[in-house]
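User: Teach me something about this protein's shape.
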Amino acid sequence: MIIDMPIERSPFLTAQWRHLVMLNYEIDPKLIHSRVPAGTEIDYWNGRTFISLVGFRFLDTRLLGWRVPFHTNFDEVNLRFYVRSKSGDEWRRGVVFVKEIVPRTAIALIARWAYNEQYAALPMKSDVDPPTAANELRGSIRYSWKWAGTWNLIAAQIEGEPSPLAAGSEAEFITEHYWGYASQRDGSTLEYRVEHPSWRVWQAETSDFTGNVSTLYGTEFSRLLDGAPSSAFVAEGSEIVVRQGRPRRI
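Assistant: First, the predicted structure itself:
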């Protein structure tokens, strides 16, 4: 049986997530089946399964309400896929992270301790130039990280104003998963809620990913991520709240 607890939990982290570059790849669900946490199942969009490479900025980050010096503004790049979990009559749609990259060791250690998420601390840099009147509404967003002596890159070029999400669209499916699920060392699953308003998005004019996939994410993802994504867009982002986790045991 699933042991459930009250939904509302205290905030663990508050921040702004801004300029989220999202490269989305259709994947054979067999490649991620072993990574699906207990009590969840793969979430499909129109019968298709997706995995996303996402780069974005953390701004004004607070842990349990406190700003931590030198850990307030930073970048993150993650590889994630999509699941859902039944609670009563409600389907909770969430994400599972294959790996999350941040530039600070303390951030990675806290996330591993609190959620058992697969964090890695690597050198990172970014170049965020969103569309403005000054640049004729043309923008470029780039996030880079250094792995095995080489700089890796996720980037997108965008133009114009962001648009609200279209109901039933792939972009809505990708962005509107408001739960996180992480497998724990004892085989249980930790569930946590992520709160933010619906985001506006730019469809990418062009996008790019350059990286050593096999050694960072696993050989099973090499052919997929070395190819072109099925879609690419940039979400404007917003203030967010990550609630404290709670166990879900089968």
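Now, about its shape. The CA atoms of residues 36 and 42 lie 7 Å apart. The chain is about 10% helix and 50% strand. If you'd like, I can walk through any region in more detail.
User: That's plenty for now, thanks!
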